[in-house]
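Hi L.,

You mentioned the student needs an example of a multi-chain input paired with its predicted structure. This one should do, with 876 residues in total across all chains.
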Amino acid sequence: MAMRRREFLNLATLATGGALLTTRLAFAHDSERRARLVVVILRGALDGLTAVPPYGDRDYAALRRDGALHAPGEAGGVLPLDGFFGLHPSLSFLGQCYAAKELTVLHAMASPYRERSHFDGQDVLENGTPRAHAGQSGWLNRALAAAPSSAAREAGVALGQNVPLLMRGPAPVTSWSPSRLASLDEDTLARITDLYARDSLLATRLADALAANSIAAQEDAAPIMTATAPSAMARAADASPAQAYNARYVEVVRAAAGFLRQEQGPKVAVFDTTGWDTHANEGGAQGQLAGRLAALDKGLAVLRQELGSSWSDTAVLLATEFGRTAAINGTRGTDHGTAAAAFLVGGAVAGGRVVADWPGLSARALYQGRDLAPTLDLRSVLKGLLADHLQVPARALEDTVFPDSAAARPVRGLLRA
Amino acid sequence: VQPFASAIAANRFGLGARPGELTTIGSDPRGWLIAQLQGGPPLLSDASLQNSVQVLADALQLRRELQAARKAGQDVQQKLPQFLKPIYVAEGTARFAEAVASGRPFIERLTQFWANHFAVSVDKQFLAGLAGSFEREAIRPHVLGNFTELLLAAETHPAMLLYLDNHLSVGPHSLFAERAQRRQSERKIGINENLAREILELHTLGVGGGYTQQDVTTFAEVLTGWSIGLDRGGLLGGGEPGRFVFRAALHEPGTRVVLGKSYADEGFQQGVAVLRDVARTRATAHFIATKLSRHFVADDPPPQVVQAVAAAFLASHGDLPHVYRALIDTREAWEEPLAKYKTPADYIISSYRGLAVPVEGHAPLAPFEVLGQRTWQPGSPAGWPDRSPDWDGASALIKRIEWADAVGARLGSRRDAAELAPQLLGANLADATRTAVARAASAEQAVTLLLAAPEFMRR
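Structure written out for the whole complex:
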């Protein structure tokens, strides 16, 4: 465990020392390569101790009982990471990414939020401040507003009908979701555009929607945008809720890739997934959460495939609002907790490691006697990611993107130089 | 009275004007709303709709049969969804049809508000078959009653107990736990705090309402034993399948302190006593007043409105018609004619009402899914959000317009949009919209333009 702590500190200091170099290199290749960022919000509080089980921790198995996962190689064993942590066996694509040094696992990480409401927790995760409901914009949008400007009309796209708080704010963003309806004729559209001329909200939204549609309609995106919709719709008609959900999710992932592949398209895409609130019958190597993780993993594999050569310029962050109780509860599930696990994956990621200052799972080490204790501030990771990947200036990160976060020093070196 | 007050009554307090409704309201919009508070609540009793006990008993029975079939190697994955889906569609259609046809749209809106306040979501097992009967059995009878009774009805309904996992929550010192310990069972015995937390956070006090993690844990212990009848033996079985049952064997014994007050162990009544007290706190009054004011006045309601509504809540001990009247009586409720951006459900229902569209067809609930608000599927116990940025996305807007286009194509030749526009929008009808509708290239396009107009996107 001591080694683990040292390793963590080394990573942080090494990266800080090399910050200048990293930034210059990133700037130099920005002209030929466009950094892409995907943020996936896992709403409902992913159980980090099942997604990334610390099977090497001596207290882990007793806390999770028959839901505990075993060492690699054993029946129902985890996928190997670093000999202490493993990956849930449903996460096979992420396991391959780890082996290819394209996945960094973050653990015992938390936003500044220390209560246990999903909705406030998600608000803090997205608003980038220490408090829930502190504002009407998200850190990612403010980061885009501060980043070197791109030629694209839209800096980011939210895959869904509406824009989540994370992406709301001053930078121009749009939302897009596949349509089952016929598109409008130009005359009707022109008349509606006129009707909205004196309504700034609707005028902006309509222009954003049309911009997104025109990107989606471009030739190389077209097969993705149109071909999947009818099949997904047909599937949805007689699929189980889980199957319908997974079909929609894959559709969203394909659309995200379709936008990001475009040279003139948005460089940031955001979408969310749900179903992580496992209060009862969570399962272990198999079961409810295993099924959700498998679907998540499959979607990421689709994302990589669809991004093609753009994958090498892409970082994907998967984060949740908080973790879950260390111990299993009375209904074979877990209740709301504190620190969680997160993933940073992609061709641009300097992966193949677990970044964690592991606090342990002994009764004394648990936060308030029940949760994995937080030792890594989410904002430290986000600052490093935004600085090195999107070239967001350090001052903006401190002032506007993550106000009141001076104590959260950036973790550098998360991306390939 | 402001010229647009009747439009506010019909479109913001109601579910959207039907042709002629603004004339009916005339110069007394407050009176029109208050009159709707008279008489019993609309219960939506329909002989073809099944009650939750029936549905749940059948679903539990089916699940047991499927478990046996699965062991025998049959593929039965779709059987339960196939059983539940027609129930969901029948319930959702009945609710939709009532919203479209209702002459008391204020009460229907309140019903939807409370169903969303005590949200269950059909993406959890069994809930597709229960969300509708939950609304009819637990919400509707109390919409014009007392908040405490509404709260008790919601928290003891099998749909809520299943949705928030309370039915198998076990007190660590309960009879069940002791026996399990004697048997040296491997099973972890303990509480599930989901229901207790969401009652405090989402149904009563609100987050920041002064409760601690300890209160959540203790309250969860108080609620152990609040369960559902199951068709099996043992301490976890018994009771009428599908009906609420208090299982004393699961209940954590002893006096418990919740929010600083001590509650003696009176079994089921211990939890009822906590709920009755929590329902009457200032924090609950403020939280409910905030949500009502946000829904009926503005995304960020003026503090004096919230204060007036909360005061009525406290003074009347949660008598809901008093609370609604306080809301109607605020000046601010009548000042801003288009303060709220419609949710997709608002948009669809007001379109159907305005154009007198019949609720029919093989997929009557499809519009809700297409426009992003699938009936009874908010996806979380917080329910659907209630602010403009949650609904005014670019993609959401273009879908509304595309849908309006489809509605226009289907009905346009049989509707006169120019004649309807003032009847639906009243004083909110802008000259630009009036002109655009009048000069439309076709009757179909005229309907589309009316539904796409900025003043029809809002309420």
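You could point out the following to them. The longest strand of chain B covers residues 226-228. The mean pLDDT of chain B is 96.

Best wishes,
N.
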